Amino acid sequence: xxxxxxxxxxxxxxQLPGYRDPAAVRRFDAPEAxxxxxxxxxxxxxxxxxxxxxxxxxRWTINPYRGCSHACTYCIGPDTxxxxxxxxxxxxxxxxxxxxxxxxxSVGKYRRFVATRVLDKWSSIKPAYSVVLEDGTELIASAxxxxxxxxxxxxxxxxxLGPLKRPHLAVNSQLLGPGRSLPTEGELLNSDAGLRVTxxxxxxxxxxxxxxxxxxxxxxxxxxxxxxxxxxxxxKYLDFNPGRDFEREIVVKVNAPEVLRVExxxxxxxxEHVALGTNTDxxxxxxxxxxxxxxxxxxxxxxxxGLGNPCSVLTKSPLLLRDLPLMLQIAQRASFTACLSIPTxxxxxxxxxxxxxxxxxxxxxxxAELNRAGIPTGVLIAPLMPGINDAPHQVEPLLELAAQxxxxxxxxxxxxxxxxxxxxFMDWLRTxxxxxxxxxxxxxxxxxxxxxxxxxxxxxxxxxxxxxxAFWRRSSGEADGTVGDVAASTxxxxxxxxx
Length: 499
Prior knowledge:
By secondary structure, the protein is an alpha/beta fold. The chain has three domains: 1-70 and 232-308, no CATH class; 81-230, Hedgehog/Intein (Hint) domain (Endonuclease - Pi-scei, Chain A, domain 1), CATH 2.170.16; 335-499, pyruvate-formate lyase- activating enzyme (Alpha-Beta Horseshoe). The chain contains twelve helices and 23 strands. The strands form six sheets. Strands 4-5-18-19-20-21-22-23 form an eight-stranded mixed sheet. Strands 1-2-3-17-6 form a five-stranded mixed sheet. β2 (23-28) and β3 form a beta hairpin.
């Protein structure tokens, strides 16, 4: 036990699949920790490889704290035929971990067939839908499952929990895949395989549906490119919902510093840049008790025989100032940058959207102190939410104060609503800002991202405010000052991934 003021809750321990030892389930005797549980686990690995499809400018990240995933879904029927790498097919229910199957790899605007492997597999009972294609193929899937179409990834049906519709299939949607033909390694994916949707209907019953995770992030199901779930292998054992549970059931990798030292010392490690804060905030308040980041920075400082490993951090908390001496030591040996996420200075907007985060002005003070100390530190204005914190009179003072704090980079990042986040955010909007519901339904009617003209408007506002540069962002290759997209940070999703 790390802390004398920790108390075991009634469960005491819980066995989480994927971990050899049971997790200690603990509570803190503190007002901010009421109704929260912390699952202390011993991780086998803490260096996480970022999927190439994310298009991030770094390949490795560390997340010492993890909430549950909101993106996991149970997708396709047990008899769905999965295209194996040897050209045969096998029922998804019969797949095994390690099986070699076909997926796709995207390079630029082209997508090619490549071999990949099954990394995980699971099932659950869900309401099922039938999607019939013009060549007679029938796809049995959940409403949440996504197939690749000419317009990108689309769910089987629109969001069933609210009027804001996610991208979804319709009659005449053109799906992509090899169809009934057999692709070869490296062959280009095309759209002339006769995969037009002719009908979509609920089967009126729940049935056992399956999903898998693959190395490419997709697989070929009944001749159609099908999306897999990246987050499920990490979180499938939690079985929490994407709202309240995400912020109340926290997994803590108590051995993260020790494991990181071992991983950084491996001959295979090439000293690549490591980014922290890309999934969950490493400086959420409980870090004040666990103090995992101190050991993580020490491991990065001592890597490569004391030469250090380049790294960066994105956070909403001034708590990172506690570790400033360690950050300076890393900066002297390798490279180190920081960024504070500050969506608004508006008191009302801040308390409505981030009620339990540190004060925006305290974050700006942290930016100034870090820059004075010699740590290049920027500001990420994220998320920019139309009608909530995107007015010039709200953004311009923040840009001015960021400049006064010496922010080396400033970027504005537009809200995006993906998967379950859409439902959570819209539920919050209906309660807190019903006057904006119609506007958001229109803005995000066809996709998870803000329309290009809306991003352009936000970009112009950031440029007019004199932003000195552009920090790394989710979008790929935008010019300086362009606005990317960031996930919603509502009262029930504030610990979700920032990108």
